[in-house]
Amino acid sequence: MGVTVALSLISHTNAGKTTLARTLLGRDVGEVRDEAHVTQDAESWRLVDTPEGDALVLWDTPGFGDSARLAKRLAQQGNPIGWFLTQVWDRFRDRTFWLTQKAVANVRDEADVVLYLVNAAEEPGDAGYLAPELAVLEWIGKPAIVLLNQTGRPRPQEDEAADEARWRKALGQRGVVHTVLTLDAFARCWVQEVELLRVVGDSVRDEKRDGYARLVAAWQARRHAQFEQAMAALAAPIAAAAADRETVPDTGLKGALREFGKSIGIARDEGEDAKARAAEALARRLDARILASTDRLIAIHELTGHASEDVRARLAQRVTLDAPVSEGKAAMMGGVVSGALSGLAADLAAGGFTFGAGMLAGAVLGALGGAGLARGVNLAKGKSGTSVRWDDAFLDGLVRSALLRYLAVAHYGRGRGDWAESEYPPHWPPEVERVFAANRVELAHAWSLRGEASGENAIAMVLEPVLASMARQLLDALYPGKWGQTPAPNWGQTPARASGA
Predict the structure, then answer these.
(1) Per-residue pLDDT tens for 165-216?
(2) Which of 189, 207, 299, 389 has the greatest count of CB atoms below 10 A from its CB?
(3) By C-alpha distance, which of 365, 376, 390 is closest to 256?
(4) Which CATH architecture has domain 4-188?
(5) How many CB atoms lie within 10 A of CB 448?
(6) Residue 366: pLDDT above 60?
(7) What is the overall mean pLDDT for the chain?
(8) Distance between the two ends of the chain, CA-based, in angstroms?
(9) Angle separating helix axes 130-140 and 95-110, nearest 10 degrees
(10) DSSP state of 489
(11) CA dihedral angle for residue 257, residue 325, residue 321, residue 381, rounded to 10 degrees
């Protein structure tokens, strides 16, 4: 026999209850307008259920209006419940007061745990409604968790902790308030939802705890399945870009000299058309893949809207010319002094000349030693044509961009409306760089598979778990301990079933 656990969202009017409900449910419910008492009737929706018949229900209620008058009347009544039932005339005489009563009655009758939303953008001391609303919550007598909403875009963990401590101090020692958490309807991350459910579990009655544990496991399974799908969506266009090639006509020795002259700043741009067209073809394919991947990422996270051209603006434009090297060409270009020989050798070992990327800048043309090196690499690579491809540094940049894009989508609450690209919080890029540095070897291994027969598939099989590990490291850094409270997803296995939003 399953159990039903009910969470009731309640707050001062127009504090964002319905907006948060949309974010948690992953669908549009209720009505959202910037005015008081938009929600006039208590409504409930299932957040998640289990095959055993358990259900986690979220109630959205009318906001508190004149909570000071309500708290005063409740304190004056010898029989508050009896008084509540006699207040029918308030429905017509004082609708604001009537809606406040409805909210309180619903929470009293339905809730296992109260989620009390406050506007964290204001100082607790300036919220004149806070004391009377807490008095009403004490009269209701259900365990309450205070949620800080309207906190702005994602912030460092220490800033959120300071805000939570400030509100705990302002709330004082009230037995009804079990804890204070940050959960912004616009900018929460799904790992914060997991933390909320864990805290709720501490307040659930003993007879419902086993069923509630099953509900939490189902919720975690759904979020972890989303995480796995997101990693696959991010890895696919990068793996495709790594394996991508665009053939260009062989321009022979004259073309090689022009390329080398350009690298040291003494050639005109004649002959660049073929390479430019090839690079543009690569870029068009990459653009389409990145936009499709971002659209998929948005849908996985139960958001609306589509990726925009802003996504493209975040990508650099760099390519590598990947060409077989004749002995004559290598003899003219391979003997590079002034410290550039090691760079050229490394570039040849990676499969091609990196023209225009500074590798040969300032080098002095010689005629010694290049032919043998070129012949060995060409024979080992089995090259038979000239092609343009993305270089390793650019692929590294795609990984950084993908991780930042994942964080942006994972923090975007559905209650905020259609997805829109925006600037990343300043504390994200340094964390991404730190995680990237820790996984550089694994990424280099993925790029080294570009010559394999399986190409794109081989790269994707290596890249996807590396991306997942990096994303998890980021979430662990941004929200210490939150993911660690739940088991990691099992790659390639079917997650536990869950239904609902």
Answers:
(1) 999 988 888 778 999 999 998 999 999 998 999 999 999 999 999 999 999 9
(2) 389
(3) 365
(4) 3-Layer(aba) Sandwich (3.40)
(5) 16
(6) no
(7) 74
(8) 22
(9) 40
(10) P
(11) 180
